[in-house]
Design goal:
Layout lengths: L2 H51 L11 E4 L2 E4 L3 H25 L4 H17 L10 H28 L5 H28 L8 H19 L1 H6 L15 H15 L4 H31 L4 H29 L1 H19 L7 H27 L7 H9 L8 H13 L2 H6 L2 H11 L4 H7 L10
Antiparallel strand pairs: 1-2
Helix pairs in contact: 1-4, 1-5, 1-6, 1-9, 1-10, 2-4, 2-8, 2-13, 2-14, 3-4, 3-6, 4-13, 5-6, 5-10, 5-12, 9-12, 9-14, 9-16, 10-11, 10-12, 11-12, 11-16
Amino acid sequence: MSIADLRPLRDQAERRREQKAWNWYDWANSAFYTTVLGVLFAPYLITVAGKAAGCVDADETCSRTVSVLGLDLAAGSLPFYLTSFATLVSAFLLPVVGAFVDASDRKKWHMGVYAYLGAAFTCLLFFIEGERWQVGAVAIVLASIMGGCSLVSYYAILVDISTEAERDRVSSRGWARGYLGGGLLLVVNLVVFTFHDTFGLGEGMAVRLSLLSAGVWWAVFTIIPLARLRNRPSLGVAAGGGSVLERSFGQLWTTLKELRRYPMTLTFLVAYVFYNDGIQTVIYAASTFGTKQLGFSQGVMIATYVLIQFVAFLGALWFGRLAATHGAYRVILWGNVAWMVIVLGAMFLPARQAVPFLLAGVAIGIVLGGTQALSRSFFSLLIPRGREGQYFALYNAFERGTSWFGVLAFGIVFQLTGSYRPAIAALVVFFALGVALLLRLDPERGIREAGNAVVRPVV
């Protein structure tokens, strides 16, 4: 066998090594999106802000207000407004970050800087206590923004380390590893929270230590991809001269104009904005819905999230196999229909009955990892080469933990009705819009227009 014959094997082995390293960042950052945004932050902040607002015993549906920059916001809606604000900022900031990434030869270091800033702000959540909710409000906004910035580089690296035929598998395994890692940390936090008296901790301190653990976890495991991934030369075409930052703004403007040349890419991006907002809002609001509306304890909620994490681990791998047989596009469409059934059914869940709630958690876990993993890999096929950072920045502005419209709608419906049941059911609109737009999409045309190889099956 000649050296030329061995070259593809060496290239494949190198890609596999980097793909395994790349997957570790899903493991690292998932702690923030599960322990913090998924389970503990919203109910705990509502409790602390409720005390500051004068609610007796942190009333389950506290509608008294606290002042935020001169605005009177219901304590029960405060976490959702904060997440909406973080996403609004990200919508303007992340595309510029993406343009900067495309113009740089150091994608992994951009990912690392933003990851460690996000982890540091997450650790500041430890200082939420008593009636001091303000530090948490600032820290969660900044941590969410930094997390989104790190994912811009992370997603762009996927294109560098995998072929078109490998991306569904690589992305699915990344999401699966993320759910496994997030689930393991939740198990630890479940033990700490449930047996806090045994450890000599108050309930509030147990929550604060769990929030801190997510930041530490994020920081420690980010070391692995930073050590094993390698930077590659930029393929982006800089717009004009000047500094990298000046060229980044130029590239952003060029990308926004050129997006009209890729109507299928634009269609999928808009569809993703809607259905991912629905997914992220379910993830973010489920703990509040379970504790404040259905009357479950934080221990039950953490246990349910642990169940969801491990089911989602299997669901992501299963959806990856389904995509290999039926195509990612079709499986994403099926997943959206399943989400519509789930959120409508959630409105009728009985209070304080664990079995129906756990069954709903299993259903969420099955479709959760798969729809997100395949959305990431499918969108990578619709991006013209050299523009990954900018396109994934637009995509990522509405990614995990940074949804805008869904969380905002959830908070508004609660403030208008005083109940989280109609708020959760209202999310069906977002999945219905996602399905309607996906049905207008021609996936093969979109992949060809972007200049990428069409891998069978597409649909």
